[in-house]
Amino acid sequence: MKEPRRHPLIVGSGIAGLYVALRCREMGLRPTIVTQGRLEESNTRYAQGGIAAAIGPGDSPALHFADTVRAGDGLVDRAAAKLLAREAPARIAALVRYGVPFDTAEGHIALGREAAHSRPRILHAGGDATGLSIEETLKRRVLEGGIDIEERTALRSLSPGGAHGPVALVARTAGGAEVTHESRPVVLATGGAGNLYRQSTNRPFAMGEGIAIAFRAGALVSDMEFVQFHPTAFWRDGAPRFLITEAIRGEGATLVNQAGERFMPGAHPDAELAPRDVVARAIDREIARSDRPWVYLDATGIPRDRLFARFPSICRFLLLYGIDPSRDRIPVAPVTHYMIGGVTTDLDGRTTLPGLYAAGEVAATGVHGANRLGSNSLLEGLVFGERVALRLKAPRAGAPPAPSRTLALPPVAGKGSVEDLTTLDRLRSRLWEDVGIVRTPDGLRAALGAFETLDREVEPAGRGGAAGAVANAALTASLIARAALERTESRGAHFRTDFPRRRESWSRHIGLRLRAPARRRR
Ligand code: SIN
Description:
Elements: E1 9-11, H1 15-26, E2 32-34, E3 51-52, H2 61-71, H3 78-98, E4 104-105, E5 108-109, E6 111-112, E7 122-123, H4 130-144, E8 148-150, E9 153-162, E10 165-172, E11 178-181, E12 186-188, H5 209-216, E13 221-222, E14 227-234, H6 247-250, E15 254-256, H7 276-289, E16 295-298, H8 304-310, H9 312-320, E17 330-339, E18 342-344, E19 356-358, E20 363-364, H10 377-393, E21 405-409, H11 421-434, H12 441-457, H13 465-486, E22 510-514
Succinic acid is lined by residues 47-49, 245-247, 337-338, 374-375, 377.
C-alpha cells in the first residue's frame, strides 16, 4: 500500500518549486510538479543580477545578515535572515553540484556588487542570465530524475483537509477536467504578484493567485503592503519593461535626470547603491519634477568590452531599440518587481493550514522585512525550499505564529456578473495609480473599495479561465490595498503621504485572514 501522504504536490516551477522537487526526490519522496505553463516558464528564468552568498574574501554570513536587516527597515525576522545568510554557501554548493555554470574569474566564482550589499557577493551566470542558467539546469535535473510533471495545469482551489494536507483541485489551464488531490502535502511555489500592476518586470502569469487561493482556504497571509519596485526597468512606449539589473550600478553606472545631473548623491550617502526603496522613490521624485516619465541610467563610464561581456542580454536587448549602452544613456523608471508579502510561513515553510507549505516569492517568512535586499530572492527559494523538503521528509506538527496585528476579513461570495479581462486591465491600472510607490489615503481607500466591489461581483472562487483569474486578482489586490491602508506609517517599500515617516509602534507585521463563518444558532 502506497503512502500518498509522503508524496507532495508542488505547485509552480520556478527556483523554489524545482529545487523542492529535486530535494524531495533525493530523499526518497515522489513529488509531482504542477505548473500553469511549460516547466521552464517562470520569473526565475528572467532574473538577471544573480544570487547572493557570503563566499568571498572578507565576507561572512554575519555581514550578509547585517545588510539584509539594514535594507529591511526594521521589520526583518532576524531568525529567518540568519538562516538565509548562514545556509547560503551550502545552497550554492548544491547548485554547483547540479551543474549551474556560475561565472568565474581567475579560477574562482566571480562576485558582483549590488545596492545595499557591503561586499561583492552576487554570483552570476552567463553574465546577466543567472536565472536562465539556474532554471535550465534545475529543469534538466528534474527531467533526468523522472519527476512527475503536469504542465499547463493550474491550481484552482484549496480547502482544509486532514492532518496530512489540504484538498487541492487542479485542472488543465485550457478548460480541462479537474483532478482532486487529497491527503498529500501541497507546496505552494507559485511566485509573486508583480503583474497585478500595470507596469512590472514580471511575466504575465505572476498574478498572485497562490496568495488568493491560500487565503480563501483559510491560510494566514502577511506583509501584503510591501510590494517592491525595481528602480530601473527600461522605459519606452510600446517596449516591454525589461529589467536593467542593479548590478550595472554595482559596476559604476549612475542615474541622471533630464538635465543630465546625478541626483542620488543628494538622496542617500550610498548614492546609486542605496537600498532599492530609496532609489525608486528618488527616481519617482525626479520624474514628478520633469515632463517625462523616465530618468536615465548612464553606463557609458564602464569600458565597452566589460559592459558587453558582463551584461550580454541587456546589451543585446538595448541594441534592438537603437541604444548602445556604451555610448547612450538608457531611459529607465521604477516598476513593480517583487511581492515581499504572501502566505505566512514558519522557518520550515509551514503555513497555518495543516499540510500546506509555501516557498519562494509566494511565501512570507519575514526575511525581507519591509524592503528586500537585491539577489536575496533566488536565495530565499533555495534556503527555505531546502527546509520545506526536509520537513516533508520528517513532518512535524506546528504552524507559524500569527503576527501581533491580524485582521479577520469577511468571506466573499462572488455573484458572477463580471468575468472579462478588461476588468483585469482596469484593476492593474488602479493598483499602479493608487497603490504604487507613493500612496495617499484617498487613493488607498478608493482602490480598496473598487477591489472589494469587484471581489463581490466576480465569478465564485475556484473557476478557471478569465473568471478565475479576475477573482484571484481582485482578492490579492484587495489584500494589498487593505494592508497598505492599515499601516499608518512609511517604511521600506510602503510610503504614504499622510504618514511620511517610520513609526516605532509599527515595527510589526500585519496578518490578514478570513473570518470564520458565523455558527448558525439552532
Ligand atoms: C536585479 O538584477 O537588479 C534584480 C535582482 C533581484 O531582484 O534580486
